[in-house]
Design a protein that fits this description.
It is a single chain. The chain is an alpha/beta fold and 130 residues long. It has 5 helices and 5 strands; from the N terminus they run βαβαβαβαβα. It has a single domain (7-125), classed as 3-Layer(aba) Sandwich (Rossmann fold). It has helices spanning 15-27, 38-48, 64-73, 91-100, 112-129; strands at residues 7-11, 31-35, 52-56, 82-86, 104-107. The protein has a 5-stranded parallel β-sheet, with helices on both faces. The chain is globular and about 35 Å long.
Length: 130
Amino acid sequence: MPDKKKKVLIIDDEKNLVALVALHIRMAGHDPIYALDGEQGLLSAEEKKPDVIILDLMLPEIDGLEVCRRIRANPNIKDIPIIMLTAQVGIESRLKGFEMGADDYVMKPFSPKELVARVNRILARAAHVL
């Protein structure tokens, strides 16, 4: 369990999925926060400065790729690690996500335990960089 609770921003429009991921993030000792669309996600990232972002690609208003691009273009939040979470199975969408600045990629359906393990790995790596 981490020494200090880390904030994990979940940006996804599927409320049940957000609740599931938030539960597992909380059980891992972190503080889940969430946004249900891309615009709200960008605002939450700017205001709350999470330690890691879990980002769905298919979002209303602003899609996940554009959210990722805008986060990477914003000097205040550009270094926040991003894990893409999506049902899009094509290699092209994964490559595009990496090109936009995603740090990791998880396909739906997914194991919440694996997602938490990936979050923990990214947080541990970030702690070593500091």
